[in-house]
Amino acid sequence: MIKGTVDRYNEQNGFGFIKSETGENVFVHYTGIEMAGYKSLQPGQEVEFVIVEGQKGPQAARVRPVSQQDEASAQTSEETPKE
User: What CA–CA distance (Å, rounded) separates 63 from 28?
Assistant: First the structure.
């Protein structure tokens, strides 16, 4: 999975762009967002995704918001020494 930040997202049209950790802007359509209920993203939101080949070029798929809890548990497990 690639990490990135939502650059912009138009809720009315159901698409936007994610800036990947490498700096590339990747198109995202609402059908590529994995979440329950209304599928939307907010500018500045951190996400994980994969890049697939869409009809008009590369696009984000399997997009999942990165929750603060996920980040905290990852940092805790990295900081905890293993015995």
Answer: 8
Length of the chain in residues, anyone? 83
Say yes or no to pLDDT of 80 above 80. no
- pTM reported for the whole predicted model: 0.77
Domain of 16 in residue numbering reads as 2-79
For 50, the enclosing helix (H) or strand (E) is strand 46-54
Structure tokens at 62: 């399997």
Q: What is the CATH number of the domain that holds 37?
A: 2.40.50.140
Q: How many domains does the chain have?
A: 1
Instruction: Read off the pLDDT band of 76 (50, 70, 90).
Output: very low
Two tokens at 58?
A: 């590369």
Q: Which residues of 31-44 are buried (b: 16+ CB within 10 A; e: fewer)?
A: ebbeeeeeeebeee
